[in-house]
Amino acid sequence: MNANEGEPSLTASVVGASGFTGGELLRLLAGHPDFEIAQATSRSKENKTIGHVHPNLRGLDLRFSSPEDLKSVDVLFAATPHGVSMDHIDAFQDAADTVVDLSADFRLDSEAQYDEWYDGHSRPELLADAEYALPELNRENLADADLIASGGCNATATILGLLPLFEHDVLSGDEQIVVDVKVGSSEGGAGGGEASSHPERSGVVRPYAPTGHRHEAEIEQFLGVDVSFTVHAVEMIRGASATIHAFPEEPVSKGDLWGAYRGSYEDEPFVRMVAGGGGVYRYPEPKAVAGSNYAEVGFELDPGNKRLVVFSAIDNMMKGSAGQAVHAANIALGLEETAGLEFAGMHPVGSP
Ligand SMILES: NC(=O)c1ccc[n+]([C@@H]2O[C@H](COP(=O)([O-])OP(=O)(O)OC[C@H]3O[C@@H](n4cnc5c(N)ncnc54)[C@H](OP(=O)(O)O)[C@@H]3O)[C@@H](O)[C@H]2O)c1
Question: Which of 21, 50, 105 gets mutated to test ligand 1 (max ligand atoms within 8 A of its CB)?
Answer without folding.
Answer: 21
